[in-house]
Structures are given as structure tokens and as C-alpha cells.
Amino acid sequence: MTGNHWGYGKEDGPYLWHTNYPIAKGNRQSPIDILPHEALHDPSLGPIILKYDRCTSSNITNNGHSVVVEFDDSDDRSVIQGGPLDNPYRLKQFHFHWGGKGCCGSEHTVEGNSYASELHLVHWNGVKYKTFGEASTAPDGLAVLGIFLEAGDDHRWLHMITDALYMVKFKGSVTNFKGFNPKCLLPSSLHYWTYLGSLTTPPLHESVAWIVLKEPIVVSEKQLSKFRMLLFTGEEEDQRIRMENNFRPPQPLQGRKVRSSN
Ligand SMILES: CCc1c(F)c(F)c(S(N)(=O)=O)c(F)c1F
Ligand SMILES: [Zn+2]
């Protein structure tokens, strides 16, 4: 693995990240395997509150690791609050992690079981920190809402994203993606597990309060297959490498407690 380049392949994958990012072997790394029966039910944990109504997406981009929908986070127009959080956290972007055909794909697992994909809505603590960059290195800087995607019927709103993926096939491509509200990607229940962890990609900062929803959303194999049409590689590169299996495996719990909303 040369320089700070990293990926999900044999030569630059998760098992090698520690060479350039030693925090990879830290004591609050993500993702983890969630064991529901060992999670502590904490009655003091209130519901999470998503105030996404004034939120507007700006663009969709292929950053060579995932497909990312970015938001205008210049004010507190779209925030997550409540649950384990002491104040509102601003929505910055959301992205996905997924597997190859028919197997694995999520980052968090539940009793060793993987889902086909996992959606991450990334928020930052705009009350305590001035920029996302500053927040991303602080222990209470980020809050990521994780939502599992299970293969089944077509998801009626996900097509708004999968229909745009052909426009960002290559690494480094970006296109306009206005007016998308991720509220339409939520499951019916907001019950969750929560624990303190990290970014699941380099730089792997240990700055994330993870909130993982228990109920997956259902999407079709056809919709999932459109994510796999994306490429890790840029238009100018000779090699075309399909973007799939862009997930980090579960990391040691290191004595951390996972709490359950109920
Ligand atoms: C530095 C930008 C960034 C990511 F690239 C990322 F993958 C994640 S993750 N998978 O932990 O949700 C973040 F939270 C995040 F802030
Ligand atoms: Zn992620």
C-alpha cells in the first residue's frame, strides 16, 4: 500500500490499512458484530429525532470508495438529535457499502449475519465544532445513522438514487442531485443500537457515535445490482474494476458496551 492510497482489494484492503493508519488497531474501531442479547437496554435512551424536512441534497459523487450524496451543511437545516446525542448534529452526506452478487455487503453484522448493504447518514457536531473536518477528529464530533438494506422487493424511492448511478460510473465523477430527502429511506421503526466507534474507512478517526437501526429497509436485487455497475477506477484508467465489497469487516469490541433503545 503506497502513500495514503487505500481500497478494498488484496493489495490495499482493510487488513493492510493499519500500515498507514495505525488507529486501525485502536480500541474503539467500527464496524462491530452486534449481539442483541448482550446489548444493554437503557430506558434513559430517548428516541432519535430526524429533522430532515428542510434538508436538500446538492450533488451525488463517486469518490472511488462509494457513492456519496452530499448536503449543504452551512446551517442547522437538517439534523439528527435525541437518543444518545447531547445536541443536534448536522447532516453532511450519506453513502452506501455493499457486497458482490447475493452475498454479504453490510459493515455492521448482527449475530454474525450480514445484510446485502448498509446506508450511512453522516452528521457532525456543529454546536461544538466549526467545520466537519475539525469535528471528524473529535471523540464527540460525528454521529452516523446506519440503516441495513435487505434484498427483497423493489424499494419505491431508492430508484431515485439507482437511476442516477450511471451518471457517476467512474471515480471522480459528480453530478447535480438536488431536492432528495433521505427521510424516504427510513424503515418504519427507529429503534436502534448505539455504541462509540470510528469511521469505517481511513482515516478511521475514533470520532463516531454510531446509531444502527434494528429494522432493515427492503430493496430489490435489481436495485442492488445497479450499485455494482459503479467503478472503483477513473475514466482515464486502463483497468475497469467494479465497485463492490466496499465494506470493512467487524472489529474487536474491546470491552465496549452496546446500548439498545428498547
Ligand atoms: C471522512 C468521510 C467519511 C467516510 F468516508 C466514511 F466512510 C464514513 S463511515 N463509513 O464511517 O460512515 C464517515 F463517517 C465519514 F465521515
Ligand atoms: Zn460508511
List keywords for this structure.
single chain, 262 residues, mainly beta, Carbonic Anhydrase II, 3 helices, 15 strands, binds zinc ion
Please give a structural write-up.
GO terms for molecular function: carbonate dehydratase activity; zinc ion binding. Its cofactor is Zn(2+). Keywords: Lyase, Metal-binding, Zinc. It holds the Pfam family Carb_anhydrase. It catalyses: hydrogencarbonate + H(+) = CO2 + H2O. There is one protein chain. By secondary structure, this protein is mainly beta. The chain has a single domain, classed as Carbonic Anhydrase II. It has three helices and 15 strands. The strands form two sheets. Strands 2, 3, 4, 5, 6, 7, 9, 10, 11, 12, 13, 14 and 15 form a 13-stranded mixed β-sheet that branches. Strands 1-8 form a two-stranded parallel ribbon. A hairpin with a 6-residue loop joins strand 6 and strand 7. The longest helix has 7 residues. It is globular, with a radius of gyration of 17 Å. The N and C termini lie far apart (43 Å). The mean pLDDT is 96. 4-ethyl-2,3,5,6-tetrakis(fluoranyl)benzenesulfonamide binds next to strand 9 and strand 10. The site of 4-ethyl-2,3,5,6-tetrakis(fluoranyl)benzenesulfonamide (KJ5) has 9 residues, from strand 9 and strand 10.
